[in-house]
Amino acid sequence: xxxxxxxxxxxxxxxxxxxxxxxxxxxxxxxxxxxxxxxxxxxxxxxxxxxxxxxxxxxxxxxxxxxxxxxxxxxxxxxxxxxxxxxxxxxxxxxxxxxxxxxxxxxxxxxxxxxxxxxxxxxxxxxxxxxxxxxxxxxxxxxxxxxxxxxxxxxxxxxxxxxxxxxxxxxxxxxxxxxxxxxxxxxxxxxxxxxxxxxxxxxxxxxxxxxxxxxxxxxxxxxxxxxxxxxxxxxxxxxxxxxxxxxxxxxxxxxxxxxxxxxxxxxxxxxxxxxxxxxxxxxxxxxxxxxxxxxxxxxxxxxxxxxxxxxxxxxxxxxxxxxxxxxxxxxxxxxxxxxxxxxxxx
Length: 346
Ligand code: SF4
What we know:
The chain has 346 residues and is α/β, with parallel strands linked by helices. It folds into 2 domains: 1-53; 57-342, TIM Barrel (Alpha-Beta Barrel), CATH 3.20.20. It is built from 14 helices and 10 strands. The strands form 2 sheets. It has an 8-stranded parallel β-sheet with strand order 7-6-5-4-3-2-1-8. Strands 9-10 form a two-stranded antiparallel sheet. A hairpin with a 6-residue loop joins strand 9 and strand 10 (304-308). The longest helix has 33 residues, at 2-34. It binds iron/sulfur cluster. Iron/sulfur cluster binds at residues 68, 70-72, 75, 77, 109-111, 142, 164. It is found in: Endoplasmic reticulum membrane.
């Protein structure tokens, strides 16, 4: 009897000891990789991406403003602040990113052409191409505030302009919230398409596949517009942005199933430039920099900010970006992105 009790006690001590040891091993692993125990513990527990602490910011999406003139119901970068970094500070951050390995910058928002009537954006585009000599400088816009004057002044320094368009039916655009007053989204799109050709900027279309456009056939219009890329995203929920109590938008009613998304892709499979992005591909494969130049980690289905790269440097901040570098390459995040290499017939 005593022998059995002793063996059980001994076993219990061993189990406790092993448990304690593995906890400490986890702590050291987390501290080494993330420099922060609690956050690191969560990531180690999830067996999370080993690339997060070693990532190179090859392609960065800088959402320098959250302000927008549209009200898309699924918007996942909403107007939670009106802050925009002063121009010289923003340039400083961009230079730091270049020194850390950035090859492509994409300016986004909100609507990037709103702040200072597009002049702020123009100066950043010019700086990134002329001073930093980045191979690729691109912009994502809803297309409503772009002027021909902007193209005249800054078009030569811009490689790609992506315009968001989810539908070629104005009623659907209105249902989605893509519009302002009487402005016709499609007319704007056509105008911008012509300017891209005239000023030699590669033209791209971004569409969000959602409950209102999932049955639409866009083959004819996309062929006519002939973009270099047509990115089709599956509508994504992000807590605090377009889902949950604190969110400014509520996109739950816009969401579609993976099967419905596949049907949309199947209908457009003849379009060679179509690049599909499911929720799974999208969530962690973008390096997102917010208006304070903080990386946003979306791995938990919300946007958790790092410290600003201006305060802690790129290398420290990027550890908290949640960026999945492998998925970035897997989704084709690196492609021919300099207009000089695209051999376009303007
Ligand atoms: S245009 Fe873009 S930034 Fe503006 S509300 Fe729509 S999704 Fe959001």
